[in-house]
Structures are given as structure tokens and as C-alpha cells.
Design brief:
The chain is mainly alpha-helical. Helices cover 80% and strands 0% of the residues. The chain has helices spanning 15-44, 50-72, 75-82, 87-112, 118-156. α1 (15-44) runs antiparallel to α5 and α4 (87-112) packs antiparallel against α5. It starts with 14 loop residues before the first helix and ends with a helix. It binds fe (ii) ion (FE2) (2 copies).
Amino acid sequence: MTQQPNSGRPTCRTTPEIDASRQIEAQHLALRERIAEIRSTLAKQFDDPNLIISQLSSLSHELKAHFHAEEEGGFFSQIKKRAPQLSTDTAHLEEEHHEFLGQIRDLITLAETHEGSEPWWQRLKEEFHEYSKALMHHESLENQLLQRSYNEDIGSHD
Ligand SMILES: [Fe+2]
Ligand SMILES: [Fe+2]
């Protein structure tokens, strides 16, 4: 099996598979940037809460689209097809999508009950910090799973 220089990925993957995986990887990067923006807004503690409400709402929309792309766009099904033994892991990640969508709704509700007090900002910061940490962990597990499924698929053809 040949490898593309520096890519660590096999050249035998089909174009639709590469497109779907690249789309998901690009969305993971975009989500990281969105989270960094929100952390920066929270750190500045603006008097006007509209910015943080709109940024959290944008993140919620992006997550819905991202989770839908993973569930329906072939990302999870490709992993299961290449490495059926990873099905339990993908099922767990799919379950987490529902939890993340519920939690971002709660964060938006908290932002909308804007008090502007120091304890209110601290609570929003802490809850978003925990949320974004869990979300980034989820995305990093997906990246690892994708890589494992390539490796195990390659191994099965040796
Ligand atoms: Fe996901
Ligand atoms: Fe993801």
C-alpha cells in the first residue's frame, strides 16, 4: 500500500470518502475557532449580552448542521464499514450529539437571563468552559476513530 507524502493516509480511498472526511475535518476546525471566539467574548464581559447570545446561537446552528453531516453524510457509516468493531464507539458518539444540543440550549437560556453581575458571568464562563472541553474531547475522539478505521481497514488488506 502506498502512502501520500506526509498525509499518513492511503491513496486507495475513494473520492466521496475523502470528500466526506475532509468536510468533517474542516468543520471540526471551524468549531474550534467558534469556541475560541466565544471564550474571548466571555473573557471581556461586555455589558451588552447580545454578542454572546448571538455567538452561542451560531454555535448551536453549526453544531446541528455538523452532527447531521456526521450522522447522515456518511462519516459514521464509513467508519463502521471499514472497521465494524468500532460500531459501539460510533453509537456512543451519536448519543452524545443529543446531549450536546440540549446543553447548548441551556447555555443560551442562561445567557438570555442576562444579569450582568460578576457571579452570573462566572457561572456562564464556567459552564461554557466545561461544555467546550467535553465537545472538543468528543471531536478529538472522532478524529482518532477515523484514523483507527483507516489503519484497521489497511491492516485487513495486508
Ligand atoms: Fe460528533
Ligand atoms: Fe464532529
